[in-house]
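tool=predict chain=A
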Amino acid sequence: MTGTMQSDERRGTGRKTVRVVLADDHKILRSGMCGLLESEPGIEVVAQAEDGRTAVRLCREHSPDVVLMDISMHDMNGIEATRQIIGHSPGAKVIILSMYSGQKFVADVFKAGASGYLLKDCDFDEVLSAIRAVLSGETYLCPQVATVLRNDYVQKIFQTETPATPLSPREREVLQLLAEGKSTKEIAYSFNLSVKTIEVHRQKIMEKLDIHSVAELTKYAVREGLTPLEP
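tool=predict ok
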């Protein structure tokens, strides 16, 4: 498999090196994946992120071709990060690397704009296969997930009209941070907003969801995949 993605730019044919951003909150996993990718001719890891918010910022700065994204990260999860990355960089191809194979997780990431879904126990050769597939305009599902969610179901995700989420992008971000135990003051600092503004966001979130406690908000965020399942 080595050499199959060799840069034609380096050979003078004008094709560019595949630029990759890695996003995972486990440093050892990022380092291992980075080493494997950079051993492949024609692939360059241009940046690494430990959370979704940083991944969004780095994608704006580096304009990657491919983003390898963990789904479960603190501060901003991979689903919301994917939605924001595709919103400002529709040419970027996001491949999710996840521990979860449930239909809801798969459906949510493809609705957010992802192009591929891999389980974290996959072989590195499959990562390369997924990169090639998404760069060719294909949707990639690892075999384990494909047995749960067939390709025709993925097509329905794109074709079927679904009710819009009642929350705005900013409200989803505030909800995740509330669910992660951040104080109103900490959230305000994170967004460079006033405490009063964050309190208004929290009130609107509760009204829209008909939820009346932070504990219930946390349950909702976990159920909807807005925050990691593990503490």
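The CA atoms of residues 141 and 151 lie 8 Å apart. The mean pLDDT is 85.
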